[in-house]
Amino acid sequence: MKQKIKRPTITDIAERAGVGIATVDRVLSGRRKVREENVRRVFEAAAELGYHATPVIKYRLQQHVSNATFGFLLPKKNQNFYRNLTAALQMESESFPHLNVSVRFHYLETQDPSEHAECLRALGREVDVIAASTVDHSLVDSSVSDLAKQGIPVFAFLNDFSSSIRRKFIGLDNYRAGRQAAWMFSNTTRKPGTVTILVGSQLWQAHQQREMGLRSFFRQSAPSFNVRDAVLNLEARKITYDMVKDIVASQEDLTGIYVAGGGGEGAINALRDSGAAGHIRLILHPITEETRNALDEGIVTMIIGTPIDRLSRHLIAEMAAFILKHGDQPESQILLSPEILIPDQAQNRGFLHTDFG
Known about the structure:
The protein is α/β, with parallel strands linked by helices. Helices cover 47% and strands 18% of the residues. It has helices at 10-17, 21-29, 36-49, 54-64, 80-94, 113-124, 138-149, 174-188, 205-221, 237-250, 264-274, 289-297, 308-323, 343-346, and strands spanning 66-75, 99-108, 129-132, 154-157, 169-172, 194-199, 226-227, 231-232, 254-259, 281-284, 302-305, 333-336, 339-341. The longest helix has 17 residues, at 205-221.
């Protein structure tokens, strides 16, 4: 004769959850309010024990969860880096505990500050909190200020802007990234020469900080290198390709090129087509399959990457903290160490976390 399997009871659930039987009863009946923490413990215990009314408890738990809409403003939807970042932000938002998050993504078409400012305002009509990577400009400041007055905070990520108005910045330590690029140039070239830096725009603060870090290192530690004035490439592949081909042809003592923003794939193709690959050091952002392959080929000397997963976790946690009224951390920014990829690490796809520079 088969032994009858004992079904779990509310006593079993209370014991597993570490709460009183009365608490379990209140959760099941919904007649009296129970703290969210206790509801969650009861739900987890019921799920583990296979309690038949677990769906009811899950429903009670969902009644405690706040709803929020997160908005993200990003450049260039068609670039692999931003596609990967979009996926990471969406996954982190939808899996965040204690909050039911829906997301809205808007993508910028140009580097025009008026477009960026208007996109922020438009996004503010759809969401509860915004995270944006946009240019640093007075028109953007005005939009961020107006949104703050409406109770919609704006977080800066990847690129800082409106530093006295925005909620917090989360992104790379860009000054350090520039110094790391300079260290690599100075330690991998046979003799000092000219280094050229390409930036997307004078309005991208991240690019300016990388340039400052690069120049600072050379000035302090390798003054025999000549760093040319920054060249604007608008982060466009074709423009970068044409610029790099011209630079290679016109600068006889060229030893290095630093692409401080996007468009690095154009530099890769230009060095490959001009026959200068391997002779001129190329350092760029970000880490993508295309830049990894160029590293394997010996065209790229170093890739400085943004840790997408860590960035997403920090950013979503800060946005959620605002919605849940947990308050801000005292710091105005969270700076992340870059992920460094160099040829020795390329074979096993590992990252080199360093303090050089």
